[in-house]
Amino acid sequence: MVGLVQAYLRATSFVGFWPVDQFLVVYFVSVPFHIMSFPYFYHFQLLYVLAKFQILALLSGKTVPFHRRVITTSHRVGFDSMDYNFHMNNGTYCRIADYGRAALLLPVVLGAARRNGWKVANGGVTMVFRRELMVGSAYTATTRVRSFDDKWFVLEHKFISGGRVVAIGVCRMVIKERSGRTLPPVKALEILYPGTRHIASPDEASARLGALADALVAAPVAAGGPTLGQHHQ
Fold first, then answer.
1. Which among 10, 105, 167, 227 is placed 20 to 30 Å from 98, CA to CA?
2. Among 134, 154, 173, residue whose Cα is nearest residue 216
């Protein structure tokens, strides 16, 4: 493998700027710092997050409706997550948000969605950045349902570092029946959790994702953000 790399480098103009041996040393030393770029790392980390929260749910012995759960994951900005400003790049925010959404919705997907032939689809994400996350910074990402209307569930992804909100993501999710028709959130919740009353949010979430994200960003961390919809038992 090393021989192939050396042959390739010698055949390119890159050799004129950096000796092959020095390049190989730097390359292999830097590999451990770019673990998140390894093939299938995304999938392995996703499976880890899903397994972790499923095990925690089983150990707790409680069934918490998914729209009342809060998924919190902890991370640190790696070298392969940075942009040219040494900040965490935009794509990493969306990747981390994927983990939270998957863990939040897994009970639905494994349960009623599988039995009834539902499909849960992502209808769009809006991300608002308040502060940068530098390489090496530790941060947490929380995911929860913040609102819903007659079509969309609206999820909040909040990124916090050092006690401050650094970014807010707002995502809208829809449930489709086997026929392809949209299953209204209130009806879905009635099927998922019989006997529970739910008051739909008045927010026009599907049309106001950007404004909703701005409102969430303006909210103080300690308060946990505004309650944009009411969900009562």
1. 227
2. 154
* Backbone phi and psi for residue 181, each to the nearest 5 degrees, phi listed first: -80, 150
pLDDT tens, 185-201? Answer: 888 988 888 876 654 45
CA–CA separation, 179 and 198 (whole Å): 25
* Rounded Cα gap, residues 117 and 78, in angstroms: 39
Q: Which CATH architecture has domain 63-218?
A: Roll (3.10)
Amino acid of residue 83: D
pLDDT value for 203: 52
Q: Which amino acid is at 45?
A: Q
Which pLDDT belongs to residue 55?
A: 84
Q: Domain limits of the chain?
A: 63-218
